[in-house]
Amino acid sequence: MVFSTVLERAGAVVLRPASKGLLLGFAMCPALLFASAALAADASSLNSGDTAWLLISSALVMLMLPGLALFNGGMVQKKNVLNSIMHSFSALGVIGIQWIVIGYSLAFAPGNDFIGGFSQVFLMGTTPESLNGTVPSYAFIMFQGMFAIITPALISGAIAERMKFSAYVIFIFLWSLLVYDPIAHWVWGGGWMSKMGTLDFAGGIVVHLSSGVAALALARMLGIRKGYPSEMFIPHNLTMTLLGAGLLWFGWFGFNAGSANAANANAALAFTTTMTAAAAAACAWMIMEWWLVKRPSALGLATGTIAGLATITPAAGYVVPGWALVIGLSAGVICFYGVRLKFTFGYDDSLDVVGVHGIGGVWGPIATGLFASVGAQGLVAGNLHQLWVQLLSVLAAGIYAFVVTYVIGLVLNKTMGLRVNDEEEFGGLDKEIHGEVGYSI
Whose CA is closest to 284, among 307, 263, 264? Predict the structure, then answer.
């Protein structure tokens, strides 16, 4: 018999006769313990649980694109359903490529306070062995890529039923390059907002504020749909919209809880606050409709849910469930009135992107500055400065997104035109632009 001990990290194999094995084994126990500790420390750099959770979360966020397609597609007229769905699915292709080629580098590669550099164009320097914290870099890149994809797709709801599809494709590419990537770098990539201490757990500023403000700029530039507001533009399939809302709610757990970048207590907290705020906002919206119009609607319930999800996003990992309840209830009321701003100011936000994502994208970061108490301190924890930081971040990101979006729109309008012609708008964008229809009867 031979007593064998293998010290792989030392590269040594020690063999001893059995007669001496017992004493030698006891003598080497301390060394074995230290070697085991070293191995455990090295292994902890890659955590399989964290990796699995981030990969699942990436898939959940990707599922939000079909969810958004159904949510928006059900609210447009029947003749425009495929065009609306194409807005979401085309973003998967266009921004999916843009993110790999240059988007990730501009958002997360080392650069300056305003924008990342070009060191990771085409993901150069990233290998299967590369790590971002406890997960493979590729997992982190793909998770963040799903955020980059869904953000410009959100804008499409405000311009539904009247924008050229060719102009939309070019717009989302340029917008991601010039608006999303810089703001993502400011907040998450080591830019000036990050250094200032801005709190945005999962994208209240980066995703919802930027898309909501951009939606306002583009809707203003495109003008109103023919017949709006005197003509009733009734959703053609609310069952589709509710299914989309359910998929969005489901995917949002990956969106928010996945932003912990680990399968840990912070992810569990974000999961809980996400559920709490969404439920509270849905109930608040339903109560508002019951009170003011006497009939709670399915569309209102779905819209309230999305308002709560959008608003809790920046605070998800920073607040306790009690404050998430407050954020959700307030989001349901604030966004309920926010949707009605389009009637006051005369812009045509077709599917209420401005009222839900824009208003929610303003209130969410501010609420974070008020109620943060986990891993950060807001006003209720005695930190007035954090509220100021949040207000400044909202203002700066909002102005930047609006101005740059407007400039992109102006350039596209002068070069290729933004809006379909009257014949295409009346005939339906499915048939006139895509040569097909969503329904054969």
Answer: 307
